[in-house]
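Rotation project, supervised by the postdoc (A.L.). Task for the rotation student: set up a whole-complex structure prediction and record inputs and outputs verbatim in this book. Inputs entered:
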Amino acid sequence: MTSLASRLKGRSELGVAALLGAVGALVLFDAARLVVPYSQSDPVGPKALPMIVGGLLLICAVLLAVNVLRGGRGEAEAGEDVDLTHPADWKTVLPLAGAFIANILLIDWAGWVISGTVLFWGSVWALGSRHYVRDGLISLALALLTFYGFYLGLGIALPAGLLEGIL
Amino acid sequence: MDVLSSLMDGFATALTPMNLLYALIGVILGTAVGVLPGIGPAMTVALLLPVATVLEPTSAFIMFAGIYYGGMFGGSTTSILLNTPGESSSVITAIEGNLMAKAGKAAQALATAAIGSFVAGAIGTSLLVVFAPIVVQFAVSLGAPSYFAIMVLSLLAVTAVLGSSKLRGFASLGLGLAIGLVGLDFVSGQARLTFGLPLLSDGLDVVVIAVAIFAVGEALWVAAHLRRTPLQIIPVGRPWMGKQDWKRSWKPWLRGTALGFPFGALPAGGAEIPTFLSYVTEKRLSKHPEEFGKGAIEGVAGPEAANNAAAAGTLTPMLALGLPTNATAAVMLAAFTQFGIQPGPLLFQNEGPLVWALIASLFIGNFLLLLVNLPLAPVWAKLLRLPRPYLYAGILFFATLGAYSVNLQAFDLMLLLVLGALGFMMRRYGLPVLPLILGVILGPRLEKQLRQALQLSAGDVSGLWNEPIAVVVYIIVALVLLWPLAARLWRARRPRTGGLVVAGGPAVDGPAVDGPAAGPAAAPFAEAPAVEGRHVEGGPVDGSGAEAPADRGPDAGRRRADATHANHGQEKS
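Outputs recorded:
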């Protein structure tokens, strides 16, 4: 057990294998559910590709798990602003995702101008800016600009929500 | 079809004031966004897709042409002025480019990159004009079996050749194909993977997927590892070149172009291999080899031209066959389908004016780039100082806006978040993004060709290889897949050079901080076997890359170990 625990330590990539396995199983399960009446005009049917894809995913899941347990590791992506020397900073990512979710919840009810402001302001805050007022003004300006830009320039009416009638 | 007159018609369309304006907007937008760290040309096109869909198709594609070349150019500016390259295609440019900039020759580095890009772009686009119709002529005679084979080749080549781990490439491909399955089956009308949600029955919107994977995934990933110390940006004036610089640049430009175009046109070619080959070639041919490693202008001129020529080459299979070979082309192809345009060999016939206008605007965009970018370089350099919170918050903001505006559904935003999380995970664990995107886009078309092929043969499996081209393509597929195995057997017979014991870990420990020296050295080696493989297939390369790994002992060894490791998984799947 301890050896298993020590082998699992630092092997978060097994989660990827688990995900691949889950998706593969899901695809296969969904494909098995399809009823395929034999038809002359479509000998392959809708089942064939899902079966192949599901199989591919399951094989990849198993091989990846083996690979990871043997010490293989995926290469994290580098970039201009990416500093891989420190571990993932969840204190930034989670509030960022929070701002994103707030926008999803707000957009249809409160409208884009409000939800977009919340999204940008929240994201900037999550990413470490602490100029509350300046950021708020920039957020509001961006949301308003895009609202009118899309409406007047592209003919796309983003939801006005609570501010219906004012905008 | 008279190519020249079609092209002239294309110019006539593209040169109207309105379309010229769109080209200019595309070039400026493409460069500006391309310069911004963290945003590559693929993401630029993805972010602008929703907006462009309201434009008339011709104008939209004229703008995309500008964005395409602009984004490529922007990337090279970033890699010269910053120490850390963004896209894999500008990794090589960054080596000598950044050293030149540090040595106070930033202006010359930018100038040779800009003019080299222009030369390569012009030649590359001309080659596109020559070759695309030939490929089309050949392609219209192909039936479903051949198409199926070519698509299989294109998917496998991208998955198995690019990237450091084939296993992870196939995992990514599987995920992409699975995403592509969602929706109603187009023949039987049965719902697949919709979980009873009516919103899923039309399938997932490609725009949403592209924006999620490229923009949201990237923003979240960078947020998790945001560099807190400011990057060192080298100030620059207006780019210029002295007589000596011209003399040293023009040959590398031409050689880079010659290397870049064919590789870009091949499935799984991409820009990484030719830029690397160009670098190696220039280093060998240079009269100033001692300057390499201290900022040699040839080391910027050649790879940069190769990069742009590859970008033009990529458009050949994309326009002629409907096959994307890099991420940007994949997203552009998604744009075609957004407009209800069927990509494939009939594109030139059905949408002739649009395609030729697109090609003409590639020439125009290329020229505008030169005009705009030489004087604007200092402005672009300032863009690099944009505070990061604003940059990444902005990416999320516009990603949301773009994805939402397609259908005006909050549901799409949930998909955006879920797929964005997937993109984050893929970046964290080294799953390449390109196979996924290609899987999403090519998966449904692959299935269509498969079913058509077997329909014609009334279910007989031999219907998959009853065309000679299909057989040839399957042989190439086998070569692509078996080459690493053969190479391994060959190596196993000879005394090992060491390094094979170190299983697994592709340069996880190779710190990205100490810059281009480690990065590029690592990246191309994974490709080296592929380079030789191409040669066997009658590729245009003279195998000059094959000797390259020899002079870098330990790194190459470790790379090989990894490749071996990954192959292990690949033979079985």
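Student's summary: Confidence is low (pLDDT under 50) at residues 497-573 of chain B.
Supervisor addendum: The longest strand of chain B covers residues 183-184.
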